[in-house]
Amino acid sequence: MLVLRVLSRGEFHGWGITQKLEQLSKNALRVEEGSLYPALYRMEEKGWLKSEWKLTDKGQRAKFYALTRTGRKQLEAEKESWGRLTGIIAQVMESP
Amino acid sequence: MALAQSLLRFSTMRLIQFVRRFLALFRKETIDRDMAEEMRFHLNQRTADNVADGVPADEARYAALRQFGNVASIQERAREQRGWVWLEYFVQDIGYGVRMLRKNPGFTTVAVLTLGLGIGANTAIFSYVNGVMLKPLPYANADRIVRLTEILPEGKGYDPPSPLNYLDWEKQNTVFDRLACYDGLRRGILAGVGAPLSVLVSRVSPQYFDIFNDGVALGRTFAPGDDQPGNDQVIILTHSLWQSQFGADPQVIGRSISIDSKPHTVIGVLPQGAWDGWRLPNNSPNFHVFLPLAFTQEEKTRDAHFFEVDARLKPGVSIEQAQAQMDTISARLAHAYPESDKGRGIKVEFFADTIVAAKLRQSLYLLMAAAGMVLLIACANIANLTLARGVVREREVAIRASLGAGRWRLVRQFLTESLLLSTGGSVFGMGVGWISLSGLKMIIYPGMLPAVATITMDGQVLLFTLILSVLTGVICGLAPALQATRPEAMASMKEAGSGLSAGRRRQRMRSILASIEVMLAFVLLTGAGLLLRSFFNLQKVDMRVDDPAKVIVAWMPVPDKRFSTPELFLGYYHQIADRLRALPGVSDVSLRDGSSRFFQIADKPPVDQANRQACDFTMVTPLYFRTLGVRLIKGRLLNDRDVKGAPPVTVINETMARKYFPDQDPIGKRILIPDMPFGEKHLGREIPWEVVGVIVDARASSPRKTDDHLGVYVTIEQSPRSTNVLQLYIRSAIDPALLQQAMRNAVYESEPEQIVMNITTMEQMKGAFTVGERFHLVMLGIFASVALVLAMIGIYGVVSYSVTQRTHEIGIRAALGANSGNIMGLVLRSGMAPVVLGLLIGLAGVFGLTRFVSSLLFGVGEHDPITIAAVALILAAVALIACFIPARRAAKVDPSVALRCE
C-alpha cells in the first residue's frame, strides 16, 4: 500500500521509492530492498504497476514504475479498508 | 450491459496477462538482464549516497552491499513473482535431472527396472479390475437393468423364482417397464441343416431382448403373443450359428428347422457379439438358439424354481423403490400361498453386480492389494538408494543453497529426479504390464471371467498408470528430498563433510524403510504360504472314491419330453449302458441324476414347509456305488430288486446319518421326500423312503464340499423323472483316454442322435475345481517372491552402507582389540534390528489382513501358526544372509587402513 501511495505521486525507480518513503515518513520507515523488489515484480505481474526504462535527471538509465488504472483502484480500496481498520481500532482503544 | 462490459474487460486483461506470461518465457534473458541492471543502479545510488555522507569509496560500496542483502537471492525471489516461472524451473529441473541420472547409469537402471516391475504388475491387475468391475456393461441403460431373485426363508440363501410367482410379479408391479425371464441353458439337438448339432437352447419372455436392447441383425425379436401356446413355434438364432451353419444366408428367415424333433420357424438372427460370449473351457463357441417362453401346464407351479428374471426400471424409479414394492408383493404372496411362499422374500439387485461373482471380485481385490504392496516395497528400495546418494550430493546441496536456492526449490529438484525415474519405470512397466496381461490371459480359465468383460489396456488403464507413476515418484522421492535439504545440510559448507549426527539420522530413516519392506514382505509371503497350504490340502482331499483317475464321467443330454413313460425312458438308457458295458476295458457302467429336495423325517413332529432342509436327492442305477468304489459302512447297498412296485428304499451318507439320526441306528428309519412324477414339474406327494444302508461321504461333485452335504441315494427305477441330462459314470480297467472314442462310437451305433458331452475323469474334475486356487497361488507366489528379493536387496543396501560409513569406527575397535567375531556380531546385530522390528509389526499386519483371504482357504486357519512361523523363519534367514555379506567385509577391515582413511 505504501509503495502504491508513493507511486500515486508520479513515476519513480526502485531507489527513488525507498528515498521517497523515507522522506515521506520523516525517516521513520525504511523499506528493505529484500522485500521491495519482489513486491514490485508481484504488483507489476498483477497489473497494478507498469514499468519503463528511462533516463534519470543525471542521465542514467533506470527502470521507472508508475501506477496503472487498476493500481489506482487498488490503492483506493486499500486506503478505504485501512481507514476502516484504524477507525475500528481507534473506537476500541478509546472506548471507556 | 455494464456487467457484460466489465466481464469483457476482465477477460481481455486476463488474455493480455496470459500472452505476456507466455512471451516472458522466451524473453527470459532480457528480463534477467533488466533485473540485474535495475539492482546495480540501486546499489550505485546507495554507494553515491554513502560517499555523499562522507564514507570512503570502498567502504561505501561494502556498506551498500551489506544493506542490500543477498543480491542473487533477492533476484530469485523477484523472479518467482512472475507467473509461469514454475514451468521454466520445471524444464530446468528436468534437464538437470536427466544429466544427474545419466551420470549414474547403474542407479538409474536398477531404479527403473525395480519400479517398472512394480508398476507393471499393478497395470496388469488393474486392467482386469477395470475390465471386470469399472467399465459399464455394453448395454444401453445398463444402470436401469436389475435382476430379481427369491430369498429363501430365514435368509438361508437364494432361489430362482417360480413361474407362478413370476406371473404375479408381472401383474402386480408398477416399477418396471420391462420384465422378462430366461429359463437358463439347456442342451438341445438342432436338425434340418446338415448333421444334427448340439446347441444351447434357452427360452425367454418376448420382452427379454428389449431389456438388453440387443436388436437384431435380421428379422425380428419375439413379439407379444409369441409366448402363447400354439404360437410358440418360432426361433431366434445367434450370429455365430447363423454364419457357420447357415452360411450367413439372408433367406434363413421363414425357414423351418427342428429343435429336439419339433419344427420351428426362424424369425430372427441376433446381431454379432450378442450372446456369443458363452464359451466352453476349450474356447470353442457354443451355438445358441432362443425359443419364446410359453409356460406349459405343468410348469404353472410355485414348487419349481428354475429361471432367471431380469427387468428394466422405469425411468426415474430407484432400485430402493423397486425393492420396497417387491417386498410388499412378496408379503402378499406369502400370505396367499403359505405352502410354497411362506417366509420367502424377493431381492432386487443391479444386473451389473450379479455378473461379477463375489469370489472373482474378492480375488481381484486381493491381487490388487498384493501388487500394491510389491510397488510399495519397490518404492522403499528406491528411497533407500536415493538416501544413500544423498550423502554424495550433500556438497552440491550446500553450494546451491548458498548460491540462493530456497529449500522448496531444492526439494522440487529432487522430486523432479524421482519423477523422472518413476516415469521411466512406468514406460518400462507398461511393457511389463502388456506382457503379463498376455501371460495372464493364457493361464486364466475363461469361465472365471464374466462373458461380457473385455480385458485390454485402454485409456483408463493408461491414466491409472500415469497417476501411479506420479504417486510413485512422490512417495519414493519425498523422504530423501526432505532429508537432503535439511537446513543443517544446506548450511554444511563449513563442515568438512560427513557430519556424524546427520549420518546417523539418515541411517535411522533407512532402517525404518527396511523395516517397512520386511513388514510388507512378511504379509505377502504369509498370504502366499496360506494359499500354498490350502492348495496342498485340496490336492490331498480324499474324494472317498476308489482310484478316481479311472472313473470316467460324461453327460448325455436328452430331448425334453421325448419319452412318454418312465419305462421308455429307462429302456433307452439301459440299452446305451449295455452297449457301453460290452466295450473291452470297461468294468462298470452306471447312470446318475440329481436334484435338491426338501425333506423331513417320518415319525417325528411335522416340520413347517418353510423350515425344511434340502438334501442332495440322487437317483442312480444300483451299480453306481461299485463304479465309484464307495465304501459301505452299514446295512446294504441298492440292488436290482429295488424297482418300481417294491418298497421304496434309500442309502444315505454318513453326514445325513450323523445329523438326523444321532446316537441311533438309521437302518429302518424313514425319510419323507416329495416325489416329482415323471413328465411333470410339480412336486407331488411325499414318499417315505426306508433307510437300508449308510455309505461314506463321497465327494463326487466338488472337493471343497465338506460336512454339509446331505446325501440321499435311491434307484432311478423307483423315482424316475424327466430330465434334460443324465450323467454317465464308467469305471475303466485301462487308460481312460483310450476309451473315449470307443465310447462315442458305441453310443452312436446304438442311438445316432444321442450326444455324449464333456468326457472327463473324476481326477480331472478335481483339477478343474482347483483352477481358481492354482491361479491365486501362482499370482500371489510371484508377487511374494519379488517382494522377498526386493526386501533382501533393501536390507543388504542398508547394512552394507552402514559398514562403509562405520569403517573408521570399526578400525578403532579392531585396533583396540576387538576380534573379527565381535565385529561381525556388531554388524549383524545392528543389521537385524530393523528386520526383527519389521517382523513384529508384520505379525500384527498378518493378524489384521489375513482375514481377507480366509474364504479362499481350505483346511488351514487364517492364523495358521506353522505357516506364519515358517514365513518368519524364511524371512529372517534371508535377511541374515543379506547382512552376512557386509558383516564379513567389516570383519576383514584392516585397522591401519581404516584409520588412515578420511
Provide a compact summary of the structure.
The complex is a heterodimer of chains A (96) and B (902). Chain A is built from 4 helices and 3 strands; from the N terminus they run H-E-H-H-E-E-H.
If helices are DSSP runs of H or I spanning 4 or more residues, what is the number of helices of chain B? 28
The percent range for strand residues of chain A is 15-25%
As residue ranges, the low-confidence spans of chain A are none
Q: How many separate domains of chain B?
A: 4
Radius of gyration of chain A: 16 Å
The largest contact between protein chains, plus residue counts on each side, is:
A-B, 20 and 26 residues
- Structural class assignment of chain A: alpha+beta
Low-confidence stretches of chain B: 278-284, 494-499
Number of domains of chain A: 1
Measured between the Cα atoms of the first and last residue of chain A, the distance is 32 Å
Structural class of chain B: alpha+beta
Please characterize this protein's 3D structure.
- The complex is a heterodimer of chains A (96) and B (902).
- Chain A has 96 residues and is an alpha+beta fold.
- Chain A has one domain: Winged helix-like DNA-binding domain superfamily/Winged helix DNA-binding domain (Arc Repressor Mutant, subunit A), CATH 1.10.10.
- Helix content of chain A is 58%, strand content 17%.
- Chain A has a 3-stranded antiparallel sheet with strand order 1-3-2.
- Chain A is globular, with a radius of gyration of 16 Å.
- Chain A starts with a helix and ends with a helix.
- By secondary structure, chain B is α+β, with helices and mostly antiparallel strands.
- Chain B folds into 4 domains: 80 residues, no CATH class; 212 residues, no CATH class; 311 residues, no CATH class; 195 residues, no CATH class.
- In chain B, 53% of the residues lie in helices and 15% in strands.
- In chain B, strands 4-5-10-7-9-8 form a 6-stranded mixed β-barrel.
- In chain B, strand 1 and strand 2 form a beta hairpin.
- Chain B is elongated and about 135 Å long.
